[in-house]
Amino acid sequence: MTSLLALWNVSLTLSGMALFALTLLLLARIHEARRLGRDRTMRSELTAHLLAGHAPTRKLTRAQSEIAGDLTIELAELMRGSDRMHLLERAAAMGVIAVLGRRLHSRVAQDRLTAAEALAMFDGEGQALAATALDDPNRDVRLGAALALAQNNAAPSPAFLAQKLGIGTTERSLLVVSLMRDLAEADANAVQALLTLPGIAGETKVAATEALGLGRLVETTPLVTWIAEALSGDPALQPRIYRALGQMGHPGARDAVAAGLSSPSWEVRAAAADAAGKIGLTDLLGRLSDLLDDDYWWVRLRAGEALAASGAAGRDQLVRAAASGPATARHAANAILAERQLL
């Protein structure tokens, strides 16, 4: 009987504990539902304030300020021009800059990055706060802040950013080209100056060159040519230089491209052949035809494409190579002619 009583008591205890836990879960669910309801109401009210142009009658609570910060980030991504400008003015009046400034000290790197990107949209105080993220311990946050400042024409000088971000040394992201392009749109001369500044890493100069090439700033071609020659000992960087030369399409790059066609590096030869075709260097057609017999398929392909893009003279070179060239050249030339339907 004693054992049965003990079992009964244990069962009651467990049932009571289960009932208590269920009650807590229900209360938590009710509390969460109320909180979400309050948040939805606050989001609706604050959205109206941000979009309609009238400020709240009372000072925002901490919770409201945080929601206003989130809304500003979301809405600013959807707006451009004067609409975004008015939104940011209303957000600043509601204290959103201070909210985002606090987030720059978050332990979560993504939160710091998002805050820096949003602050860069605000003139004055906001952009000054965003600039402090250039000293963030996380490299992605530093680069993101630089990109955001550049996109809003508020970035420091290219030389300063190159040193601050460690471009070419600790920072090798391909996003650096996007950064340089944004900087070049604001001040092409400052980006161009990087090409001749002492102490600037070769990777930085290559990124600047690519950015200038994407912008088709043809007056920079002599400097780009100089860089191509100066970096002749670094085959890892040279292909990017030749791609930039091809994007510019300026015949002033002829000598550098001709040198690249004879490079011992197949990557450089391929990039130089591609540049020759894009620039339209018809006096190099014979050299391109010789590359149809190159040991590397990628070089043969780029040479063939360059010849195909060089008008009737280039197509004649392909036809001759297909008919009487070495076996490798015949195969490459026939493949290009068939692919381009030039047979």
Q: How large, in whole angstroms, is the Cα Rg?
A: 31 Å
Helix content: over 70%
Morphology: elongated
SSE order:
HHHHHHHHHHHHHHHHHHH
Name the average pLDDT: 83
Q: Please give the oligomerization state of what you see.
A: single chain
Structure annotation, total helices = 19
Tell me about the largest β-sheet: none
In the predicted model, the low-confidence regions spanning at least 5 consecutive residues are none
Specify the structural class. mainly alpha
How many individual β-strands? 0
C-alpha termini separation: 102 Å
Strand content: under 5%
Present the secondary structure layout.
Blueprint: H1 2-52, H2 62-78, H3 81-93, H4 96-103, H5 109-119, H6 125-132, H7 139-151, H8 158-165, H9 175-186, H10 188-193, H11 202-214, H12 221-230, H13 238-248, H14 254-261, H15 266-279, H16 285-290, H17 297-308, H18 311-324, H19 327-339
Keywords: Membrane, Transmembrane, Transmembrane helix
Transmembrane segments: 6-28
Protein name: HEAT repeat domain-containing protein
Report on the architecture of this protein.
The chain has about 350 residues and is mainly α. It has a domain at about 40-55 and about 60-135. About 70% of the residues lie in helices and about 0% in strands. It contains 19 helices and no strands. It has helices at about 1-50, 60-80, 80-95, 95-105, 110-120, 125-130, 140-150, 160-165, 175-185, 190-195, 200-215, 220-230, 240-250, 255-260, 265-280, 285-290, 295-310, 310-325, 325-340. α9 (about 175-185) packs across α11 (about 200-215) and α18 (about 310-325) packs across α19 (about 325-340). The longest helix has about 50 residues, at about 1-50. The termini are far apart. The model has no long low-confidence stretch (mean pLDDT about 85). This is HEAT repeat domain-containing protein. It comes from Alteraurantiacibacter buctensis. Keywords: Membrane, Transmembrane, Transmembrane helix. InterPro entries: ARM-like (IPR011989), ARM-type_fold (IPR016024), PBS_lyase_HEAT (IPR004155).
